[in-house]
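Limitations
The structure tokens in this dataset are predictions for the assembled complex, not deposited experimental models. Users should treat interface geometry with appropriate caution, especially where small molecules or nucleic acid strands are included. An illustrative entry is reproduced here so readers can see what is and is not provided.
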Amino acid sequence: MLEARAAALAKRSIKGASKRAGIDLLVSCMDLTTLEGRDSPGRVRALCARAIRPGFAVPSVAAVCLYPSLVSVAREALAGSSVKVASVASAFPSGLAPLEIKVAETLAAVAAGADEIDMVIDRGAFLAGEGARVRAEIVAVRRACDGATLKVILEVGELGSYTTVRRACDLALDAGADFIKTSTGKIASSSTPAVALLMCEAIRDYAARTGRAAGLKLAGGIRTTKGALGYLAIVNETLGTAWLHASRFRIGASSLLDDLLMQLEKERSGAYAGPAYVASA
Amino acid sequence: MSAVLPEFGYSPSLESTAPLQILERYGLFIGGEWIQPAAGGSFATVNPATEEVLAKVAFADATDVDRAVRAARRGYEKYWRKLRPAERAKYIFRIARALTERSRELAVLETLDGGKPIRESRDFDVPQASAHFFYHAGWADKLAWALAGPERVHPLGVVGAIVPWNFPLLIAAWKLAPALACGNTVVLKPAETTPLTALLLAEICAEAELPPGVVNVITGDGRTGAALVEHGGLDKISFTGSTEVGKAIRRETAGKPLRLSLELGGKSALIVYEDAALDQAVEGIVEAIYFNQGHVCCAGSRLLVAESVYEDVVERLRARIATLRHGNPLDKNTDIGAINSRAQRDKIRELVTSGVEEGATLIQASCAFPERGFWFPASFFTNVQPSYRIAREEIFGPVLSVMSFRTPDEAIERANNLPYGLSAGVWSGSGALAMYTAARLAAGVVWCNTFNRFDPSSPFGGYKESGFGREGGLLGLREYLS
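Predicted assembly:
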């Protein structure tokens, strides 16, 4: 039923004015991401410039997301803008490192100026039944965040079943995650509409139980405007319009922004211009 | 930079009626020709979402019924029974393909005439109808293996097919496809409020160059149906509709040399155990009771929830129905369309009023409806006692009665404690518990952790007052063979 419901929501009609509003919303909720071994200060500065002004009459993105050693470059490049600096931490992408190192990495990222921390959970430990250890690690990283927003990456594609994903959601929320996030983007199987729906349900139930409204971050494999708008429908009908804001909804992507801008231009001019007309980073 | 974002919402997306040509007036399709009814009578069919008249349709009386049955007999003797089975299959494949090619037209017409959301007619009714023709076309030259096989099998002759208004095209296909594949000819009588897709199907049969008399379509109301049942020239009657009419047909045909299959009403139970994935159970419940405005004979209209999760499920369901989008059936965002007719809307209202008067608590989606048209919001009752009318009578609308249970055996006992037995749904995280329950439910089909899954190869039918005989699959073929 989960997949059927998610597929039905993806068929909601979002076009014309609602498509334009949806694209603006998606841009404003975007964590513009670069997580490659070859990321350099120059590359990060280009990304930051694009994050502040993605295009003509388009809102800034919510954040840039990068590795800890590039946080200070981004901090400087984004000075004076509304764009946040998000850093991955805790031995991204595997999460397989001693806890002290995960904590130290988080402390370093925050000290360098990160507003947000995207941590990964240790999926191996979780699947081995060591939920308590995973929870303790989240709590420790949470403490190291020292006020920075904490997004907890579950890497749903490695968890094997919807039941397991739901348990991981509940565990991360209980441990204090500000956001739960689908994927590192480093494995082939990442965000799907059904998983997004399942995570929305977990967030909704957690809010009903505790009164705390946590956020959802989708990442990995979302490249088209049509696909991204479908996710908005899922959030809209499961969590409600209060979640359609960067404080509670993020979409982590690198190439999606290009398609959003091209689609926006098509809505404005009636013609599809193509990638040469969109400034890439 | 903090631009104020415009509010996000959906865009109305109305399916175009442009590809569709609805005639002002329709005749009867008898012996391969469009003819006027003997007495010249006609009636209007309206769009239940607007109350506008869509077309005038011929009223077939006993004389017309006789003409249709005779034409079907001629079609049977002269052409259809003589045709090699593989040749029959070609015609049926042709109809199947035409249904696919004209699917948009058929979906729009079904929605206009019956009020169901275009999402459903487009994604369910029409593709399923086409799938039934494809499936049965494949059987036409393999019927020797349909029974214990291989052995000689024979068609029955002329079949009277009487179909209801909830799935007009689909249930016509359920009857026509196996009847034709098995070598029978058919007189099809669609319901009075939804005759148009059957008439378009007649047109498709003509375009497929089906020999004259193999498929005949006569329109009218209950009197036309009664004349068909009483005619005496039929070898088989296949009826889908109310239990009341089904009983009348059984009385009328008792002792007569004809085969009968009846697919009648239901008051199917949904059982949600405490270990179920509750959100998925709620999705299943929504599918079970609000699909096609609850105009579904196998609708799950009684919900039995384990007492330990009762409040939780009720709250989830309350929140979920608030997100259902009611309104224009032609809008592809619409989840709940129009009630099929004024009479049905009044019947739903009457039963809902009885529920409130007997002491149940009514919970409804709040939504504004257009002034014209027939509407009823998604609703459910809590504080329902098993003796209430809303817990025992078929409402055939978007209204669910919610009750609780303590043990699996109590749930099973309550689920079975009605004269109906068409379908059931079970939600549990335990396969063992689901199987234990399914094996003890007196229902033609039991869905576990899902609902309303259909396939032409899977037989469908009822127990007790929900009827007898099966449609679809091998069991369905047997209804049309001797």
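Some entries come with short summary sentences. For this one: The first helix of chain A runs from residue 2 to 9.
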